Amino acid sequence: MNRRLTYRLMAGLVAAAFAAAPAFVPGTALAQGTLRVAMTLADIPLTDGAPDQGTEGVRFAGYTIYDPLISFDLSSAEKAAVLRPALATSWVPDATDKTRWTIKLREGVKFHDGSDFNADAVIFTLERTFNKDFPAYDASFNRQLKSYLPSLKGWKKIDDTTVELTTNAPDSLFPYQLTRLLIVSPAQYEKLGKDWAKFREQPSGTGPWKQVALVPRQRLELDPNKDYWDKNRVPKLDKLILLPVPEVSARTAALLSDRVDWAESPSPDTVERLKEDKITVSTNAIPHMWPYTLSQLPDSPLADIRVRKALNLAIDREGLVEVLSGLAVPSVGNVTPDSPWFGTPSFKVEYNPDEARRLLKEAGYGPDKPLKLKAAISTAGSGQMYPLLMNEFIQENLREVGVELQLEVFEWEALRARRRAGAQGEENKGITMLNNSWNSMDPYAALLRFQTEAEIPPAGTNWGNVKDPQMEELVSQVRNEFDPAKQDALLAQIHTRHVDQANFVWVVHDVGSRALSPKVKGHVHAKSWFVDFSPVYIEN
What we know:
Elements: H1 3-15, E1 34-39, H2 54-61, E2 70-72, E3 83-85, E4 88-93, E5 100-105, H3 119-130, H4 139-145, E6 152-159, E7 162-167, H5 174-177, H6 186-191, H7 196-201, E8 209-215, E9 219-224, E10 239-244, H8 248-256, E11 262-264, H9 271-276, E12 280-282, E13 288-294, H10 305-313, H11 317-323, E14 329-330, H12 353-362, E15 371-378, H13 387-399, E16 403-410, H14 412-421, E17 433-434, E18 438-439, H15 443-446, H16 469-479, H17 484-500, E19 504-509, E20 514-516, E21 520-521, E22 537-538
């Protein structure tokens, strides 16, 4: 049978399961302006300002309840989502010491509990995250955030509206890291008896939404913050209900039966059915990639560049996109070719199984000695798209060139724990590939965190233990370059080498697919992994 047809039938069998989807939210007795969202997550993310569950956790339980110092402009579906002021109004490196940044804070902002946002709140948030001797420190915050702020070294209050942050070394890209630092209310922590468990039940941030109810593994209810400091982003909805629904068929079934209004990553095989029901399947080119991160430890077969290139040449990306009903685009690098950071790689990522077999034979593999690999994958999760279906498709691609790929399946947070341990972790012994989707919204997220020895876990996300002196030099240069055009040129060199070294197996880029009921209005599908729910409303 034709391989693509085979996988389309498999996808249909998976989608057919939606008839058994649970009635987790009644379709009646909801407020006029209530939006019910089916997330891909298996649980509600932590609501303490350091969300777990990856970037999707930040999307739903981070940027809703809290604000960062610096955020992204999510107001356009046509333009890239660039940095914009949030709780910080300006951020400037010192003219003589580029490791020192002066951060001016927004005045007149209140936390949900009514207390003032100020420099003390910023310092409290940093201390509780990074200072193990601080009374309010919790290891969960450090675990969730340290890999996103690797350059941060120190902090101090200058006055009520100014803080100074210092980095380990000059880092021109530091402002991007501050988009993940969500500021929490010290007053609410004190009021609740200095108990983070109680804080998660009654969190207090400065964001456009206030938490009013949370049932683990079932629902998170948010009400609009009518006193939100950014009057252009005061929510229009009466209520936002977030539901963890990790099974793709269940999300699609819930939308078709009017039990939710918004379904993340709908089942590809039901796209035409959704459209027949006047449901919008919204997509956009977003900076988010779905690759395999490869172990380059000395005992890994993927330490051989010929093997890494062979795997890249064995994958039928166009066929996979067809199976996914167009809910992805083929990937030939961490960023798309139209990015200023793409560069000019000499290695062409394409579907060429004959060349893949040749390279594997040259590396010593063949019918008498098949290459055996094991990949850690997830059942679902933040940006993981359709991991079971996609991995089985790729497993078949690799089998056709003589590679036996074993899939070890984890729940999303368990996979993230394996990621934090690194390929060298004892628990990852025998695992040579990590299927972890990554956001690529900024230079650090897109490139730098995979390249240097300083990023090898537990310090960062260089899971595969890439050690490349030439890359180290390029990364050092870009961190010390504060001219945007020259930054782009250096980043293009980094990406060029990254592709030429085949440090990943690239598969597809996400398009942020989400299915929306005809009642949902005001949605802007920004070129970002994040979503602004403020302009969304429900039409009668």
